[in-house]
């Protein structure tokens, strides 16, 4: 549960 | 990768092909905002600098290169090949009102205070409002060619599909979200609501896209 950085998205 | 995101990305690809098709078959970029297209180039270049230092997948890299190349090509078409059909006098949205706040927001909200991370945040915020000069132009002229509305609809669908993608990720990835991407993405999708209303009630019923006077 929490924040993540979705750098796999365009 | 999930189905929502894949369909969203394909819709984004489709929007670009629709735009290229519109320009090339009508031999005109009438009705297309140069400012919005220039903002997209800025968005893609700022965000996809990570091509140089982060490898995600072949799909990811190819898409990034395609988005940069096609957006630059569209600018070229508008500025050179079909320049006489581009009318800057109706493309009057003041983009400094978008760029300024986006710079400020990216300096405040980012995941790390570094050049690449601030540029990434900036690109996310800028993408969320980059369509405004185009929508403003539509509002001003009060009508649009049907093909141009299909372009906008495909772009809007791309953004809309990212929302179920995030919900899916939230569920499957233990309640994790990317707050910057989600907040900006919701704003961006919200901007299309008015357009979609007219698109669904008029264009898809076979009528011309015309706004009430």
TrEMBL record, chain B:
Family: Belongs to the ERD2 family.
UniProt-recorded name of the protein: ER lumen protein-retaining receptor
Keyword entries, A-Z: Endoplasmic reticulum, ER-Golgi transport, Membrane, Protein transport, Receptor, Transmembrane, Transmembrane helix, Transport
Organism of origin: Crucibulum laeve
UniProt KW Aminoacyl-tRNA synthetase keyword: no
GO cellular component: endoplasmic reticulum membrane
Ranges annotated as spanning the membrane: 52-76, 97-113, 119-138, 150-168, 180-200
Subcellular location: Endoplasmic reticulum membrane
This protein's record includes keyword Protein transport: yes
A GO term, aspect molecular function: ER retention sequence binding
Phylogenetic classification of the source organism: Eukaryota, Fungi, Dikarya, Basidiomycota, Agaricomycotina
GO biological process: protein retention in ER lumen; protein transport; vesicle-mediated transport
Membrane-protein topology: Multi-pass membrane protein
């Amino acid at each position: 549960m929490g924040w993540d950085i979705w750098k796999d998205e365009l | 990768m999930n189905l929502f995101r894949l369909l969203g990305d394909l819709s984004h690809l489709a929007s670009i092909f629709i735009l290229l098709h519109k320009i090339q078959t009508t031999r005109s970029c009438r009705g297309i905002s140069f400012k919005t297209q220039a903002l997209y180039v800025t968005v893609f270049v700022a965000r996809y600098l990570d091509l140089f230092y982060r490898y995600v997948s072949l799909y990811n890299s190819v898409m990034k290169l395609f988005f940069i190349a096609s957006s630059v090509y569209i600018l070229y078409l508008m500025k050179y090949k079909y320049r006489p059909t581009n009318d800057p006098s109706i493309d009057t949205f003041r983009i400094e009102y978008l760029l300024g706040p986006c710079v400020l927001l990216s300096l405040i909200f980012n995941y790390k205070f570094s050049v690449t991370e601030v540029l990434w945040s900036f690109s996310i915020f800028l993408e969320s409002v980059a369509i405004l000069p185009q929508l403003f132009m539509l509002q001003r002229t009060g009508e649009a060619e049907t093909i141009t509305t299909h372009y906008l609809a495909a772009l809007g669908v791309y953004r809309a599909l990212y929302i179920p993608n995030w919900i899916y990720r939230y569920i499957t990835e233990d309640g994790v979200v990317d707050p910057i991407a989600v907040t900006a993405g919701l704003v961006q999708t919200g901007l299309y609501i008015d357009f979609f209303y007219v698109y669904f009630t008029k264009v898809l019923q076979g009528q011309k896209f015309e706004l009430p006077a």
